[in-house]
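Hi there, hope your week has been kind to you so far. Do you reckon you could talk me through the fold, stretch by stretch? I've dropped the whole record in just underneath, so have a look:
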Amino acid sequence: MDSKEISTERNLYLGLVALSLAIFLVANDFTAFSPALPAMEREFHSDITTTQWVINGYALVFGVLIISGGRLADMYGRRRVFFVGTLLFVLFSLLGGLAVNMEMLLISRALMGVGGAMMWPSILGMTYSLMTEKRAGLAGGLVITVCGIANSVGPLLGGALADYASWRWIFFINLPISAIALYVCWKVIPDDSPEACDERIDYGGIAFLSMALFALLLAFDLVVDIGFKSPLVLGFIASFFVLICFFVAVEKRVGQQALIPPDVAGNKQFVFAGIATLLISALFFAGLFFIPQFLTNMHGASAIKAGMGLIPMMLSFSIFGFLAGKFYDVLGAKKIVSAATLLMTLGMYILSHIHKDTHYITLIPGLVVLGAGIGLFNSTITTVAITVVDASRASLAGAIIFMFQIAGGAVGLGLNTTIVAMATDMPSGIDYAFTVNAYLAMFAFIICVLFIEDKRSLDQF
């Protein structure tokens, strides 16, 4: 091997290490904050319906803008958009760590979602571009493995920092990791800015969808204090439906440049995959949010112990998410997603039998079963969405399903939080909310059994 080949191989591994750090950064931020939320509540004298926005605000912005991030990466180059997105992520991480009140914290956290939405599709694109076509599977495996590790480590890292330093360090730790990733990517990954691109961003669609989801979440937030019959709550709910109508009208007007193009929106298999995703998207967020809350508020667990409480779910999620790819070729999509939704139904049903004296050990079976179902479902439903559309729309379809998972999860968490906050006590509220989640998973099971088809079956027609 000559010196040029050695240098190329060295750059490949350095680039993959840097991108793995970036993947860890984005994925970790979805789970690291959950065990630290009670500490934020105490410091800023806030309640559960407010602090949920630390997770919800980031997730909603990230989920809605992820497609735009992909479009920007196609238009201006992945490396360039990655740099801009990472700098935004770092800036608002710094401001979040320095927050002097809950308002500054929530705004900073939401704006981190803008940076994350620019980073994620750029990271994926650069990861696959570094590998040859024959090694694309290795690239996908790298992404899944690092995501699984980050999701599992997140609660432990967040809990440890909240206990032994401060919850603010969950923000500050992003700075050195980002600096390393930026420097190495700048050194070893070549500029890929295209000379020209015909893609356009559907600003109208993004605006109306974002405002619609925000109005619905705000209605859930207010109903705890002023009730469902309040004119303000009814007004926000009505605004949601009006804005969704505007969104549909804008999508029809812009045609192929729409946030969800007509050839994708008109694909029945894709639509059913999206509906099933929306129905179950609340379950992961609900487990992530309420299990640490329960352990902290009912059993006095420290932040790190509350984070450790999520380990069974996160490990199960990671293991079965990895295994789903191996199962796919043998069993097909329908069997896997149907089994996954049944597992999620069962997991939520087990966890719904929670009360103030529930010991943590009795939660473990439900967490393991729930994590297994989520891992199997998320991986497989993404594959379904990508393979049922034209190959030229594969990346877009994956981004849209990811948007459904994140934005739908944010709305679902808002609904769950409203149910918990309106109950007489937290355990009863979690019981009611998790029971609702079990029914949502059952509806998703029915859709998967009736409407999701295997790719091999579709190819026969």
